[in-house]
Write a structure and sequence with these properties.
Blueprint (H helix, E strand, L loop, with lengths): L1 E4 L5 H14 L3 E4 L5 H10 L6 H14 L4 E3 L2 E4 L8 H4 L1 H8 L6 E2 L2 E3 L5 H11 L6 H23 L4 H5 L12 E6 L2 H5 L7 H6 L3 E4 L6 H8 L9 H11 L9 E7 L3 H17 L4 E6 L5 H20 L1
Parallel strand pairs: 1-2, 1-3, 3-5, 4-6, 7-8, 7-9, 9-10
Helix pairs in contact: 1-7, 2-3, 11-12, 12-13
The structure holds iron/sulfur cluster (SF4).
The site of iron/sulfur cluster has 12 residues, from helix 3, helix 4 and helix 13.
């Protein structure tokens, strides 16, 4: 049986977990190809105008997979962390996809809800596994191997590799040779899909910089910095960005911060504002906020990155 995994949204965080799990259950895993103009075009054709760019692109990935697989995996992500939530667009994703795309194969849509406890994750795993086998031991064994794979992935990220490097099979740790360190903040699907961000990481690293991202920080860092908030946000991904910014007060090795947000993203309109105000008030690190949508072009982005990197270069030289 062939199971399709769309290369979008939280694929960049959880691919090593689910891909291994399905492979251990004996399924053939088909990941949709890298995002192209055509992926976006297909997504735009079936979605409403004002939905965010990453969700449009996700639709395009599902369309590109649907005729080549027997089932497609679209989890309903409610919460991936205790007492926190994921953006509502991901909570309703299987329903939205079903409403927008015709002639879909069956959707495997476990509800991942860890709001009250980690048991929610085990429930999701057994829900998925039981589509393919009625043997709990087979599910458990597959799950064990998948979590081991996932742990290796997160450990590599914490040591400095980025998801884009690992998932593309090349790990190019420049940190020792880099002239600058740039913290690139944003949601994983915006940061690691080079089509969405117009190859931004490569553009920045062409200036001799190493780009680090929120995935490079440990859970301890997040906990420590979020504990300073009177009231954390509801959204896990937003909290992660805030914590990554808050640690800048204590770090002296970051030369600049770029916050990348999608036009039309509700959570980012608040989080972006909070991060920008906090960085400007509490640090003297150069900061720029870049907004992307399907009309963003290379020329505008190149100019802004060039200006930002020039400023950092001059600052470093003085
Ligand atoms: S957090 Fe923003 S970018 Fe992400 S799915 Fe929700 S609205 Fe879209």
């Amino acid at each position: 049986m062939r199971i399709g995994i769309p290369r979008g949204l939280l694929y960049y965080l959880y691919k090593p977990l689910w891909e291994k799990f399905f492979a251990e259950l004996g399924l053939e895993v088909v990941v949709s190809k890298k995002t192209t103009k055509n992926t976006l075009k297909k997504g735009i054709e079936v979605t409403v105008d004002d939905i965010c760019l990453p969700v449009k692109i996700y639709h395009g990935h599902v369309i590109s997979l649907k005729d080549n697989v027997d089932v497609v995996f679209i989890p309903r992500l409610v919460s991936i962390k205790n007492k926190e939530f994921i953006c509502p667009k991901l909570m309703g994703l299987p329903d939205v996809i079903r409403a927008n795309i015709k002639d879909l194969p069956p959707i495997i849509e476990p509800t991942v809800d860890l709001t009250s406890s980690w048991l929610g994750f085990y429930r999701a795993v057994f829900e998925v596994g039981s589509y393919f086998t009625n043997k709990n031991t087979v599910i458990l064994k597959a799950f064990y191997k998948a979590t081991k794979n996932f742990k290796n992935y997160t450990q590599a990220l914490e040591k400095g590799a980025r998801p884009d490097e690992i998932l593309e099979g090349c790990c190019n740790l420049l940190s020792n040779k880099a002239k600058f360190k740039i913290l690139l903040l944003g949601h994983p699907y915006n940061l690691y899909d080079p089509f969405i961000n117009l190859n931004m990481i490569k553009k920045i690293e062409n200036y001799g910089a190493r780009v680090i991202t929120p995935e490079n920080f440990t859970e301890t860092i997040f906990k420590t910095h979020l504990s300073k908030l009177n009231k954390p946000l509801f959204w896990t991904l937003g909290n992660k960005l805030l914590a990554a910014a808050y640690q800048l007060k204590e770090r002296r090795d970051i030369d600049g911060v770029i916050l990348l947000v999608s036009f039309g993203c509700g959570p980012d309109s608040l989080i972006g504002e909070l991060i920008e105000r906090w960085i400007r008030k509490n640090t003297d690190i150069p900061f720029v906020l870049l907004t992307i949508d399907e009309h963003s072009g290379d020329a505008g982005l190149n100019t802004r990155i060039e200006a930002f990197m020039d400023m950092i270069e001059r600052r470093k030289a003085t």
